[in-house]
């Protein structure tokens, strides 16, 4: 990772609210088919040689249909992206998120789930059958199962609605798992939003929020 505290003047740091509005506007352009494709040229590459100042960190699923920069119509240096199958939390994820908030001063964390998530589907099937998948996939399923249990307790059976519950659970767990992130949220330095991406429409729907921002 590049040292992001150069001696020259720094770009203005957005508030959590401003960062959310920027992402929301980009997603609206994507949904409408009017993407602007900003910050994707040679000049932008040159601006980022010595530093980066992303205005959001997107913690999303690794699914190939969930390309964050495309969905939110942003470019190079705009978002710090962390991806795991089923957006499961582990030490590496928490370290990456803490880096984005405490070192890069990112004002917004986005937890991004999506329709027809294979990892959530596998966790639901494992819960229903009482059997676990082999290999390291088991680790993914074990981390998602608490969200499946919470969904079932609320009468939720469908994969897509279970994804929504998993996004909500993940968003809450970030602060519970990391005192650093909890402090940043409490101090208003960052906020957490949970989004569920609808594959057909291309829309990222807000399903949860923590911190100082208005939906």
UniProtKB/TrEMBL annotation:
Its EC number is 4.2.1.1. It comes from the Bacteria. InterPro entries: Carbonic_anhydrase (IPR001765), Carbonic_anhydrase_CS (IPR015892), Carbonic_anhydrase_sf (IPR036874). Keywords: Lyase, Zinc. It catalyses: hydrogencarbonate + H(+) = CO2 + H2O. Catalyzes the reversible hydration of carbon dioxide to form bicarbonate. Belongs to the beta-class carbonic anhydrase family. This is carbonic anhydrase.
